[in-house]
Amino acid sequence: MTATSEAPTAVAEVPTARLFVNGAWREGGDGSYPVVDPSTEQPVGRAPEASADDVADAVAAAREAFESWSRTSPAQRAAVLDRIADLLLARNDDFVPLLQAETGATIRVASAMQVPVAAERFRRYARGALEPAVSALAPQPVAATPLAAGGLTSAVAARRPVGVVGCITSYNFPIVNLAGKLAPALAAGNTVVAKPAPQDPLGCLKLGEVFEEAGAPPGIFNVVTGSGAATGAVLVASPDVDMISFTGSTAVGRRIAADGGLTMKRLLLELGGKGAGIVLEDADLRAAVSAVGSAWSFHSGQICTAPTRVLVHESRHDEVVAALAAYAAALTVGDPLSPDTVVGPVITAQHRDRVEGYIAGALAEGARLVCGGTRKEHADGFPVLPDTGFYVAPTLLADVTPTMTIAREEVFGPVVVVIPFRDEEEAVAIANSTEFGLYDYVFTADTARAYALAARLRTGHVGINTAQRNMEAPFGGFKQSGVGRDGGSYGLQAYSEVQAVIWQS
């Protein structure tokens, strides 16, 4: 009898993306690396591994393009950005499956919060390109000095482009985060070299196709990618890069600030957060719980603005804990392609392990697990997570003190802690006790009280009874949460230098 064997299952080949440099596509000088779907643990594609020479060529292309792009009329720049917005929306169905697969976002988040938001950012800064760039100052009578004759001296303050901007972006909303940097930078007359996050760069690379189709001048937008820190480090170190705009962790932001300082780069750093949601005794719990619940339900808590520390007046503590536990229990965790799924995976196995490490550490420090937990706790009776994929269940921890690690460091996952307070003084002290200061929240029936309390919070933003953002408001943080502001017209200022032009009449 002849033995037969089953043929091995063929591994599906995945496409390898290319770098976008000076309006042309090229292979990565150091090869390529896999990009993995966080829900299936299977490769989505391969991203190019840029060499130092690739980065240098991208910077040189941006430098050359700057000379002409910076002198184009605002109307010309606006027209290019408008065409990019139109084409992004037209190609929505090309982008969404790729973005969903490489980020692991639920299909609802991937559909509603990626391409439409990115397109709107290009549209907003098409209008922004037309905003006045010159402010007239009142004439000043100046007496004669040994330096110059006296007379009526006039001046204007003019916004000028910074030059070549290196945009290093985060993994949670790849093309949205990039559009939020790229659109105002281009509107102000700068050129850009983008370095997307290593975990999910494919959508950002694909954006080069949109620029090609829109007829954007070669070199104004370049994309280099890499699996580690080396690509970004070369960009930061380049003396031909005038500015670095970075969104990511505070630890990396500190390194960029130190390295960029060697060449006196302009910096826009959007860094970590440890948002405090202060629930006063008269708060509407429905509004508070809905806002806090976004730390679980919105992209698996991978949001720097999330209210992950819930500071609750002691008179409402047990009520809030019970309401949050019920909210978390109602969330469906699982396949992000299912329309019923609310909580999908986190970005990588390493990040899942990091988040679980924070949970385990909190329990060791004395916190009480109300719901969720690590995979070990789930095996002991909590709802079972999918076997495949990088999942962390919505986790709620009580009996947390302000000095615990879980209350001080950014977890960047679906984990919420509850801390009681006695009075407003203690609430403010706890809220301000971390090194972060990005986004806090106040929940109370007395909005005048909330407005006054906001002035005492050392944070870049305060939401009153809402987790909604105003996209025209300045975005940025206090303390270790960053340097600078963007958003709305502030974004144009962030990517500009101010030049004074003075004359006598």
Describe the protein's architecture and organization.
This protein is an alpha/beta fold. The protein has two domains: 19-271 and 483-504, 3-Layer(aba) Sandwich (Aldehyde Dehydrogenase, Chain A, domain 1); 276-476, 3-Layer(aba) Sandwich (Aldehyde Dehydrogenase, Chain A, domain 2). Helices cover 36% and strands 21% of the residues. The chain is built from 16 helices and 20 strands. The chain has helices spanning 52-69, 74-90, 92-103, 107-112, 115-128, 174-187, 202-213, 230-237, 250-261, 285-297, 317-329, 349-364, 375-379, 424-431, 447-454, 488-494, and strands at residues 19-21, 24-26, 32-36, 43-48, 134-142, 151-161, 164-168, 191-195, 221-223, 243-247, 266-270, 276-279, 309-313, 368-371, 395-398, 415-421, 439-443, 461-464, 482-483, 496-504. Strands 14-15-16-13-12-17-18 form a seven-stranded mixed beta sheet, with helices on both faces. α2 (74-90) runs antiparallel to α5 (115-128). The longest helix has 18 residues, at 52-69. It is globular and about 70 Å long. The model is unreliable at 1-11 (pLDDT under 50).
